[in-house]
Design brief:
Layout (H helix, E strand, L loop, with lengths): L5 H26 L7 H12 L1 H26 L1 H8 L1 H12 L2 H9 L5 H11 L4 H25 L5 H36 L1
Helix pairs in contact: 1-2, 1-3, 2-3, 2-8, 3-7, 3-8, 4-5, 6-7, 6-8, 6-9, 8-9
Length: 197
């Protein structure tokens, strides 16, 4: 189906114009959980319709919404299914990965890769990854990816190597800063509490 190809997704968004392309784009990005929708092409289409910055923020929001739906749905309804699919022992191993330091990195870095964003968000939900860490990591992955692909869509960049490199590397930098901030904040709050008592 043409809609599931990059150019088809862009043309579909253009039909809706500036008034409704944002909603069509968000619906396409969320439907990527169950359909083979090219998320990067949809975000590029949003960039084409709204420009690099607005299209990027809309694309990032749609990607974030998609990750949120996958995470929350699997967290709420998927635990028994996870035990059936993975087995209890493998689910416990996956819980250790997502509860430990690796989970946030996996979520942040997965957003720009095909298929991995949905699977990673679902695994984070299935394993009960802490919400705050998941949302922070998801945002760190969605914003650079959204801005990069919207810029490519808005400008028609022929060789997007630098943009793609930034899209892949920036989530790691952002999540590293966010993780350090949370660690620093936790240490500061603990010290402040000890001083007062």
């Amino acid at each position: 189906m043409a809609l599931f190809e990059g150019e088809g997704a862009r043309r579909w968004l253009v039909v809706y114009g500036r008034e409704w392309a944002w909603l069509a784009g968000a619906l396409l990005l969320v439907s990527d959980l169950v359909l083979p929708v090219p998320a990067t092409a949809v975000i590029g289409g949003l960039g084409y319709v709204y420009g690099g910055l607005a299209g990027g923020l809309l694309g990032a929001a749609g990607s974030f919404l998609s990750g949120l739906v996958a995470y929350e749905g699997c967290r709420r309804w998927g635990m028994r299914a996870a035990d059936r699919v993975l087995g209890a022992a493998d689910r416990v191993r996956a819980e250790r990965i997502f509860a430990g330091g690796m989970g946030g990195w996996l979520v942040a870095l997965s957003r720009w890769m095909p298929l991995l964003p949905e699977m990673t968000a679902c695994m984070a939900g299935l394993t009960g990854m802490e919400r705050g860490r998941f949302y922070a990591a998801l945002g760190c992955g969605c914003v650079p990816m959204g801005l990069t692909f919207a810029y490519i869509g808005a400008t028609g960049v022929e060789r997007p190597g630098l943009a793609l490199g930034l899209s892949a590397g920036l989530p790691a930098v952002l999540y590293g800063v966010a993780a350090l901030y949370v660690k620093w904040r936790s240490a500061g709050v603990g010290k402040g509490t000890e001083t007062e008592s």
